Amino acid sequence: MIVNGIKSPPSLPLILVLLGLISTINGSEFSIIEATVADIQRAFADGRLTSRQLVDFYIDRIESLNPLLRGVLEINPDARDQAEIADRERRDEANCGRGSSLGELHGVPVLIKESIATKDKMNTTAGSYALLGSEVARDATVVERLRSAGAVILGKASLTEWYGIRSPLIPNGWCARGGQAVNPYVESGDPCGSSSGSAISVAANMVAVSVGTETDASIICPANHNSVVGIKPTVGLTSRAGVVPISPRQDTIGPICRTVSDAVHVLDAIVGYDPRDHEATKSAAKFIPGGGYKQFLNKDGLKGKRLGVVRNPFLDSYNKSSAISSFEHHLDTLRQKGATIIDKLEIENIDIILDPYQSGEAVALLSEFKVNIKEYLKELTKSPVRSLADIIAFNSNNPDLEMIKEYGQDEFLISETTSGIGEDVLKAVELMKKLSEDGFEKLMKENELDAMVTLGWGASTVLAIGGYPAITVPAGYESDGMPFGICFGGLKGAEPKLIEIAFAFEQSTKVRRAPPVLKVGY
Questions:
Q1: Where is the signal peptide (predicted)?
Q2: pTM of the prediction?
């Protein structure tokens, strides 16, 4: 589904639309398909590509592929105007005869997860009709920072409605407004959630880069399932102001891109202290390195690193799968590139950590959501709903719109019965803190690790409940074409180390390939 859809102009060259080819640059053919931010900036600098052409190309691809993939909810009707402004700024810069002071994201289109507020003609609804027509007071802070970096806000990416917290029956990638999102590699494959649209869209080259959110697995899992790179930052490294919330303890905003370097360029643009998210961003600001994160894009970044491999229980879902042999090969690569591998480590109380009812995660999140969604709705300048009770009532009164009969809203109903951040929630939070200290932190510190290494996305809860960062990188494909990734997790503020490790791994393996939907469709 596309709201505010824009047709590509007749003047757009057919070769641009069909193949994404622009011209020959410095003796090599340039294609928008799979182009990195650096490739795009070189094409801009050489005068072979404009932001307007790039936006036109992506809009055309969205209109061609999105009816199948459903990764995009809205195209920004102002995207072309923003691109033309970026082109003028680039021309003015060139005419001044000075070296370019424009950043890496200047003129580059970005898709924003639809739960992240944009103060423009687009909606922010968390995928639900309950918030359709609501108006935000201002851009989310991460959007403000992307605009300041010169990025073009291309549109809004789809998501699992309300992050999946409405009901456990809602399929990954489904929302009322957009329908069921589809994995571009395997039509029947799980696109995962909740940042499914952000991952699908960059994987299918419907946009250059995207931004997602994670409370537990919502960046790491869709990136893993759609063969792209996802960075889940330390909680507080990026502001949550203006983002539909679940939990201030666990919510974080991060990039989903095709390469580690592209993800780092986005991360550099969106991190930093924000008075609107004071406590978390002030605490995390000390982790941000002077000069930003791109300095850690080091091909030799594995040298001297100590990596701890946790197999149990994360390899269970890949039993008798080609992914396990690929994982073993990747471990050999990590060793060859200079890392020390400490294998077969165990996380204490892992079974409890992974059970949201035993760990206390479910109790805390359902209570926190009721409190925090009310605060978010209160800040809207216009909204048809002002509380969780209002949302529940809307859904009940519009069962066909929200597919209540099929998917229900059981967890909303449970959340509504909670009474704020009471003793039960405080106990749950304290238990998660102890599980993290005795589990992941103990593992990292006792083994003097730079990162934990796992196959797939299954360790996301270990990292989520403690607010720890992670990066997932494409690691291969199953026999049916379904992607899988390798995940590197670290202690709070470990992004520099994780970037070095992830970038060096990516450059050594270069596993990612474009999805078949780009070539022949399904």
A1: 1-27
A2: 0.95
